[in-house]
Design a protein that fits this description.
The protein is mainly beta and 307 residues long. It has 2 helices and 23 strands. The strands form 6 sheets. Strands 2-3-4-5-11 form a 5-stranded mixed sheet. A 4-stranded antiparallel sheet has the order 1-23-22-21, with no helix packed on it. 47% of the residues are buried.
């Protein structure tokens, strides 16, 4: 049994920018991101832009078609936000949250996969692990994918990797309710799917991403200016911290970072560890999409004070 006790990020701390107004491989809104803490890279996922024709396709596919299929674009960045590479992921899901596991010099991405269309969007129904390969196009049936169905009957599966503690957290929906289950990453990789924690998602606004670090879970919510009750400059971007041992909400704070951004939609969370030799020194990061279609830009801010 893991000891899910740790320090907790201070949500009242003033966030600082990691980078702002950076383009991704496609000009769509960033959905989520994750850090390769061993190699100093950021991986960002977004809905695939319309009008592209990938190998094996008979014609360009519209943006709504890509959304319904669950087609995603993955961009690799350095820590200054410069593009280093990309992949295309067909039939994976909506990209609400992803994880990265650095191992043996390779970055393995953890994402949802096997998208099923609900409403206008495709959403994942299990999770997958695969290596980053620049320029590669993967489908949900590609042999590179190592798939895991952690909970029978669950859907809307998205995933986060806690690199400091060797944990995998999956957000999932079952019987109409969202929950978070925490597993040993090594257990999952060998097919042992017994969670060490499982808590209900507390009531939040428009859900935009999550991350876990040790014994705590962090949830991002909010809307772009002009929608969902979000008005400039304050907006309605909140981060909530949850005790993974009890499911209790520990804190919830309004985020004031990035108030000068145009559009400013909160998207994605991740934990950055600047030096993996000191995993107790970590940063809680959250993203915003900015600017306008067809050239949305990516922005990441961080909190680094632990209680």
């Amino acid at each position: 049994m893991y000891n899910l006790h740790s320090k907790r990020f201070d949500l009242t701390d003033q966030a600082v920018e990691l980078f702002t107004n950076k383009p991704l491989h496609n000009g769509t809104v960033l959905q989520s991101f994750a850090f390769d803490n061993a190699n100093g890279h950021v991986y960002v996922v977004q809905l695939m832009a319309g009008g592209q024709q990938l190998p094996g396709e008979t014609a360009p596919v519209s943006g709504s078609g890509r959304d319904g299929n669950g087609d995603l674009t993955l961009t690799k960045l350095d820590l200054s936000g410069n593009i280093l590479g990309h992949m295309f992921l067909k039939g994976f899901g909506h990209g609400v949250q992803i994880g990265v596991e650095p191992a043996d010099g390779t970055a393995y991405l953890w994402t949802e996969t096997d998208a099923v269309k609900e409403g206008s969007s495709g959403w994942g129904t299990q999770i997958a692990r695969f290596p980053f390969e620049n320029g590669k196009v993967l489908t949900s049936s590609s042999p590179e994918l190592e798939k895991h169905r952690l909970i029978e009957g669950a859907d809307r599966t998205t995933v986060n990797i806690d690199q400091a503690n060797g944990l995998l957290t999956m957000r999932y929906r079952i019987d109409g309710a969202f929950r978070f289950a925490v597993y040993s990453l090594e257990d999952v990789k060998r097919g042992a799917y017994t969670p060490i924690a499982d808590v209900a998602q507390p009531t939040v606004g428009t859900f935009q991403g999550f991350a876990s670090y040790g014994g705590y879970l962090y949830l991002l919510e909010g809307n772009a200016y002009g929608s969902g009750g979000s008005t400039a400059p304050a907006g309605n971007t909140y981060i909530t911290s949850v005790d993974l041992n009890t499911g209790e909400v520990m804190d919830k704070q309004l985020m004031s970072a990035g108030t000068t951004l145009t559009f400013r939609e909160p998207e994605g969370m991740a934990v950055r560890i600047p030096n993996m030799k000191h995993p107790q020194k970590a940063e809680l990061s959250f993203g915003f999409a900015s600017d306008f279609t067809p050239n949305r830009l990516a922005n990441i801010f961080t909190l680094d004070r632990l209680l």
